[in-house]
Specification:
Elements: H1 2-17, E1 28-30, E2 35-44, H2 46-55, E3 59-60, H3 66-77, E4 86-91, E5 113-114, E6 128-132, E7 135-139, E8 145-152, E9 170-172, E10 177-186, H4 188-197, E11 201-202, H5 208-219, E12 229-235, E13 244-245, H6 251-254, E14 273-277, E15 282-285, E16 291-297, E17 309-310, E18 324-325, H7 336-350, E19 361-363, E20 368-377, H8 379-388, E21 392-393, H9 399-410, E22 419-424, E23 446-447, E24 461-465, E25 468-472, E26 478-485, E27 503-505, E28 510-519, H10 521-530, E29 534-535, H11 541-554, E30 564-569, E31 578-579, H12 585-588, E32 607-610, E33 616-619, E34 625-631
Parallel strand pairs: 5-7, 23-25
Antiparallel strand pairs: 1-2, 2-8, 3-8, 4-6, 6-7, 9-10, 10-16, 11-16, 12-13, 12-14, 14-15, 17-18, 19-20, 20-26, 21-26, 22-24, 24-25, 27-28, 28-34, 29-34, 30-31, 30-32, 32-33
Pfam families: Lectin_C
Keywords: Disulfide bond, Receptor, Signal
Protein name: C-type mannose receptor 2
Length: about 650
């Protein structure tokens, strides 16, 4: 906490000394126009461009004179993206044919030349102005183009203690974060976009202490009425029953998972976005319905002041994980406390933290394990596979990560023209972040020639190849790399995995995990496989009894006819039931069916399940229910 306070003092001191040059670190100051400019390579419609600039505290830039033309061109040339043309703030949306900049400067007062054949007002629908090579053209405002945002030095740009000019952000010492309550309502994707543009993110609850902070923020808004609820940064978009924060952690990993009574109920479609009641308890909310929301911000974000110490701690109150910020000082210059921390991290890297999964390779340059998946999938499939393996979809956030990902890819025998990264704008169009929440604008990446083009206004995922990136449609199928950071909890349990939900049963020699979320048989198979396990196979009466006990332990009040999916099937319609390991049930050692089963009561009853009493059942392959995974304790480890 002392480091945080020291940082704030340094920030205020710096802001006092260089106040007018300290707007946002993702903007560049141009003294010829006394303004900060930022080039947005990711294209959008004119309205999207205008909104993105506005949410960042700026406006859509216009080449109103020769000086501004030069500054805009310089800002574009300073990037690695090929740019054939950009949107300007000049438009005639308010009144057809009357073009003005956003600041109100008439087009007639600007020293600009039209491109050949322009303006043509094609289809009587071209109300926006594009700029390229010193010339302009009228274009349809629904086209997608890059753009430049600008912030004039004459505007109020005093940086506040939260590292932003926005005075509505309040610093809370107990959590080390800043918060802003938005009383205007927005849908969850819109709220995500607003927070991202402000250099923040939809609030993530990491502890009971932070919950109390958000409760107090709600109380400040007035009497209980519309201010008894707000949107926060969690979601469940994959219909797997697992709620995640927008930074890729499960709620349990993040440090807070206390739901309101009866929640999540998902009683209607689209209840896949997160909210919080005034009592601090969580709720599943409609993604397409607007509500008030809270943004959370690291005080150091948007500012380029670095210091030695810890960034925000994550995890619950009793098990917080400090994130260390490495400096360029030599080891001899560090104090004893810091030296001890370095040695502790080094020891962890040498012993325990190298012991994640045998199918992952440790890369000491990034303190993480990586795994290349040569079998391609869509972006959502890639993210889910990584998550099920206890990892995240890797992103080349800096040079070290770029090198590690390239090395992991080259280490395989598969030819790879390009891979998916964890960078996406699925939550809110145009706002690209990694799965962990790192904005694309803060990564030193170069675009491929002609990229980004947002083809068909439908490219929300980022692919990586040969050190460059491109925006692609998330439904394309590409290979990918999963990663597990060394700073995450990686203590290997007796079942040979970091997953604490696997329980060892001495009488069978196996480990088991009961999944209470409901999925189809095929999905259950995938989940177990990704966890280094398999859908449970019953090999004897003793194992059937133990699995029945597990069922009753996790579902003590379940209805007698409720079933749990296990690893057997009859997909060949030959009447012979087999385990997923290729044996008949008799050869595997257990074939005790419930009375009247298998009855094949309806089409698709070709997948296996178990009743609470341990007896077998034929179940529909396309219907959802809970399931059991089984794991060899030695699997995933190189003992």
């Amino acid at each position: 906490m002392f480091t945080k306070i020291l940082y704030l003092i340094l920030l205020l001191a710096c802001c006092g000394a260089i106040e007018c040059k300290n707007f946002r670190s993702d903007y560049k100051y141009h003294n010829t126009v006394d303004a900060w400019l930022k080039f947005h390579a990711v294209p959008g419609t004119w309205r999207e461009a205008q909104q993105r600039c506005f949410l960042e505290g700026a406006i859509l830039a216009s080449p109103v004179n020769a000086v501004w033309q030069a500054a805009i061109i310089a800002q574009i040339n300073d990037t690695t993206s090929d740019c054939a043309g950009i949107y300007t703030g000049i438009h005639s949306i308010f009144s057809k044919g009357y073009f003005h900049s956003i600041e109100g400067v008439p087009l007639a007062r600007m020293s600009l030349q039209w491109m050949s054949g322009e303006p043509d007002n094609f289809g009587n629908s071209e109300d926006c102005i594009a700029y390229s090579g010193g010339r302009i053209a009228d274009v349809n405002c629904s086209e997608v183009l890059p753009f430049v945002c600008s912030k004039k030095i004459t505007d109020n740009t005093s940086v506040m203690p939260c590292g932003t000019i926005d005075k509505k952000y309040e610093y809370v010492p107990d959590t080390g974060s800043c918060y802003k309550y938005h009383n205007n309502t927005a849908t969850w994707p819109e709220a995500y976009k607003v927070c991202a543009a402000e250099g923040a993110y939809l609030a993530i609850i990491n502890s009971k202490n932070e919950t109390n902070t958000l409760i107090e923020i709600l109380k400040k808004q007035g009497p209980k009425s519309a201010n008894d609820y707000m949107l926060i940064g969690m979601y469940e978009w994959y219909e797997d029953g697992v709620w995640r924060t927008i930074h890729g952690q499960t709620l349990e990993e993040a440090g807070y998972a206390e739901w309101n009574e009866g929640q999540p109920d998902n009683n209607r479609p689209l209840q896949a976005c997160g909210g919080m009641y005034a009592n601090g308890k969580l709720d599943d909310y409609f993604c397409d319905r607007p509500y008030t929301f809270v943004c959370e911000k690291d005080p150091g974000n948007l500012q380029d002041i670095q210091f030695i110490g810890f960034t925000r701690e994550i995890g619950n109150d009793n098990n917080k994980i400090p994130r260390f910020v490495h400096s360029t000082e030599s080891f001899a210059q560090l104090d004893m406390f810091t030296k001890t921390l370095y040695l502790l991290v080094a020891c962890c890297g040498a012993i325990e933290c190298k012991n994640f999964r045998s199918d992952y390779k440790y890369h000491n340059t990034v303190d993480a394990w990586l795994k290349f998946h040569a079998v391609p999938g869509t972006w959502r499939e890639a993210q889910q596979r990584c998550f099920l393996e206890g990892a995240t979809l890797a992103s080349p956030v800096n040079a070290a990560w770029q090198a590690a990902i390239t090395a992991e890819t080259n280490n395989s025998t598969s030819d790879c023209a390009g891979i998916y990264t964890g960078i996406h704008s699925i939550f809110s169009k145009g706002y690209f972040h990694s799965v962990e929440g790192v904005p694309l604008a803060r990564m030193s990446l170069q675009w491929m020639s002609g990229e980004p083009d947002n083809f068909g206004n439908s490219e929300d995922c980022i692919a990586y190849s040969g050190g460059r990136i491109a925006d692609v449609n998330c439904s394309e199928v590409l290979p990918f790399v999963c990663s597990k950071k060394i700073t995450d909890n990686t203590s290997v349990m007796p079942c040979g995995t970091i997953d604490k939900k696997y329980e060892f049963v001495a009488s069978t020699g196996s480990c088991y995990k009961f999944h209470s979320n409901h999925v189809t048989w095929a999905e259950a198979y995938k989940v177990c496989a990704a966890e280094g396990a398999y859908l449970a196979v019953i090999n004897n009466k003793e194992e059937a009894n133990r699995l029945a006990e597990l069922h009753r332990k996790h579902y003590p009040k379940s209805v007698a006819h409720y079933v749990t999916l296990i690893g057997m099937y009859d997909w060949y319609k030959d009447g012979i039931w087999r385990t997923i390991q290729g044996q008949t049930l008799e050869a595997a050692g257990y074939a005790e069916w419930e009375r009247t089963q298998p009855d094949n009561a309806g089409p698709g009853q070709a997948c296996g399940a178990m009743f609470p009493n341990g007896k077998l059942d034929d179940f529909w392959c396309n219907r959802d229910t809970k399931f059991l995974c089984e794991k060899d304790p030695d699997n995933l480890q190189d003992f």
